[in-house]
Amino acid sequence: IPLDLTVKAGASQGQLNLTNLRLSQLRLDIGGSKATINLPRVTSGTMEAQIKAGAADLTIVIPPGVAVQIKPDIGLASFTIDDARFPRTGDYYVSPGYASAGGRINLEISSGLAKIEIK
User: Fold this and answer.
1) pLDDT tens digit string along 28-42?
2) Which residues are CB-contacts of 64 (< 8 A; sequence separation ≥ 6)?
3) Fewest beta carbons less than 10 Å away: which of 19, 77, 79, 90?
4) What are the CA-CA distances from residue 37 to residues 32, 45, 49, 89, 97 (Å)?
């Protein structure tokens, strides 16, 4: 059964491992935290994910072979992404094969002052 998951975290440090979950929607609201987020292995359908980060230090791990489209909306945030794995196309970073993938993730990230790394 696909799940909708909402997580709100204030000042904290941790890891959120969602690798083996079947999610249809993910909403993360992270304040002054340091966190590693492992996204699920989506094999069918589309998972919608929204991450809002305050003054956070985030590492977002996308499993190998998962098709993803990433739309960053970042102000003064530090943003690092593997351009070879997720080439930029206009306002998005899109993994090769995204359009024809049976399972995929649509990821929106919004932040003002965070440090964000996607790998």
Assistant:
1) 999 888 999 999 999
2) none
3) 90
4) 15, 20, 12, 24, 23
